[in-house]
Design brief:
With 222 residues, this protein is an alpha/beta fold. 45% of the residues lie in helices and 25% in strands. The protein folds into two domains: 121 residues, 3-Layer(aba) Sandwich (Rossmann fold); 97 residues, Arc Repressor Mutant, subunit A (Orthogonal Bundle), CATH 1.10.10. A five-stranded parallel β-sheet has the order 2-1-3-6-7, sandwiched between helices.
Length: 222
């Protein structure tokens, strides 16, 4: 389910949007002020942000800036006819805007369009709610902090990413790691590296949510 950060200081709008977004299979996390929204962005990774320009203890520009640093798309909610605010937001890197009052179906259409564009161009993969893998830079971050992976750990992670949603047997993983790296990896070593990788990217390595064990079959990344 796609998670949306909704930063809006009008509680009536938040309640209405939450109900509608939920009916369209979107999960929402809400913030009334800039500081609260920035804290959410520091601790989790929503797939997209809906941001009102007017917020408690700040404004939507600060939230946009924080989101774009993590390469998260932003759609601004603006007052009708406020052209200068729209221009400033787009210049900061916002991906789209919609003027209030807006039609809910139009908002959903804009959200989905931005997500499609983002998925088509992004080199980033969001794993769970906390981990971002930048394949272009070869960099992994968790809650905004760089995760140091060994070369083999990173290669193992990319094998899972390239086969997301597919059940991978241990033999298949061994073959792919050997093909990619040319390193000798046996079955025991694979167990060790999966354990180390989980310790670095999972919130709870004892209850993994990113790399799941399919008992007797292998592993799968959802």
């Amino acid at each position: 389910m796609t998670r949306i950060l909704l930063a809006e200081d009008d509680k009536a709008i938040i309640e209405a949007l939450q109900k509608y977004l939920r009916s369209e299979d979107f999960d929402t996390v809400t913030a009334y002020g800039q500081r609260e929204a920035e804290q959410i962005l520091a601790e989790s990774t929503p797939q997209i942000c809906l941001v009102d320009l007017s917020l408690e203890n700040g404004d939507g520009y600060g939230v946009c800036n924080a989101a774009k640093k993590r390469n998260i798309p932003v759609v601004f909610l603006t007052a009708s006819g406020d052209e200068m605010s729209v221009v400033k937001g787009l210049d900061m890197g916002a991906d789209d805007y919609i003027a209030k009052p807006f039609r809910p179906r139009e908002l959903i259409s804009r959200i989905r369009r931005v997500l499609r564009q983002y998925e088509g161009t992004s080199k980033n993969f969001v794993l769970g709610e906390h981990v971002i893998v930048d394949l272009e830079k070869g960099q992994v971050t968790k809650d905004g902090k760089i995760v140091e992976l060994s070369a083999l750990e990173y290669r193992l992670l990319t094998v899972f990413i390239n086969n997301k949603g597919i059940l991978l047997s241990r033999n298949k993983l061994l073959e792919d790691i050997w093909d990619i790296g040319g390193d000798f990896v046996n079955d025991n070593t694979l167990t060790v590296y999966i354990k180390r990788l989980r310790e670095k990217i999972e919130q709870d390595p004892q209850d993994p949510r990113i790399i799941k064990t399919m008992r007797g079959l292998g592993y799968r990344m959802d």
